[in-house]
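Handoff note, outgoing to incoming analyst
You'll be picking up this chain. Sequence as last confirmed:
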Amino acid sequence: MEKKCDVILTYLLTYCWNRVGYTILRSLTEKGLKVWAADTSKRNICSVSKFCAGSFSYPDPFEEEEAFIRVLKEKIEELKPKLLMPTHDESVVIMRHRQEFPEELIIPYESDELLLNLSNKAWATNKAAEAGCPIPKVYKSVEEVENYPVVFKTVIGNSAKGVFFPKSKEELLGLMQETHGNVFDHDGDTEMLLQEWIGGTDYSVDCVRWDGFWKSSVYHALVTKTDGGGTTTQREIVSAPVLEEYAKLLLDAVDFHGVCGIDFRYDPETGKAAFIEVNARFTGGLATPVKAGFDIPWVIYKLATEGKFDEPCDAKIGVKTKWILGDVITVAGRLIALKFNRKELKQVLKFRGFDAYDDYRKDDKRAIFGEMGYYLGKIDKKWEIESVMIC
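Most recent structure output, in case you need it:
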């Protein structure tokens, strides 16, 4: 059942089943905006929040693109929002159909062509190198690999999906056969990316670049949900001006316009850094800069609607946030894979010392239950599919 209310809508949020959507929802409702949440799911962390003005569901934008656009157009005609904000890869689909939406509707995103290019790790790596950012050495064949482990990954993907760290030539060859992953196809276009392994840990630069406005902050991953990097469950705002400089070089080079996250591997002790990938959207760790004072959703809203932002927005160094459910999933995943260590377990079980939680607020306790319900629904659906396949 759709959640409705009689208010003037200012903001429509898509792909908001998760903590990122919830962070945006809370950021903007605290400023007095009325926000509706839309997603493929009917119940999720945003739709059950008492701060959500209303919600509706839509077809999967990647499997039913035309139906997704049709539903979105119908709801926009009905609700008449001032601004539509995609939060993830559905932005590509929406921007591909930009001309079908009302001209006065603000959608603060780049063209689908640039979004697709930036999401391609091979294209983005080349652009980063051209802009002057350090990148890992790229190998064109297995024979060129000098040391193991090495990074073997699909050129399209996020949250460490399709990323492997083979520790030997034999393991790499096995992965290539298993994934049918030719490093270069017959046209010279990269299907898989084979790169040097870089030490250090994951750092993410959250950026807003808009008509002369530039602001960024950096968070460091304390815990990642998948082994070897990817989605963060705990993170801390740090000072890393060199990474912010590299991020700006890349976004200036492509003349990017909007919100963006750029991932690096960085070792503060040696000063060695390497570009990893671009996320041309809000990052999974959005709650950290927002809590630190760099309120990215509000900055984007003001820039998109008024063309300027002149409020203080420096991120405070040392601010830490924790994704509670993400840590639960991390513990389960590590234990199942028998890849857990005592130090990491101790860090995951920490609750003290955090300035905020991605998915829990005392004044909106039921929201986290919406998040849990969404994940449980995914598990039930997976079991149902597997049962059908077995039968």
